[in-house]
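Q: I have 99 residues here and want to know how they pack in 3D. Can you give me a structure?
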Amino acid sequence: MFAIVKTGGKQYRVSEGDVLKVEKLAAEAGSEVELPVLLLSGDDVKVGADAAKAKVTVEVLSHGRGPKLDIYKFKAKANYRRHMGHRQDYTEVRVKSVG
């Protein structure tokens, strides 16, 4: 059985026991969070209002920051050079139950 859940503006296909990194959640490590379900698949597929009744519970494992990304801007012959860096925050979660 798997479900499609939505968090942080993205959709993820999850099964029980999966560990994944999602956009940062406002929850402490060790706590449990319920994610909104878009689709639930198993013996029969549930979509829409039927899927909204389903629950996907995840346990927050840790918070962290992704790898550094370097952004360079350059325009030839104009003496224009810019450098920026970015590290995306994430939350690592484990799916406890789907259903």
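Q: Anything worth noting?
A: The chain has a mean pLDDT of 94. Residues 19 and 94 are 4 Å apart (CA to CA).
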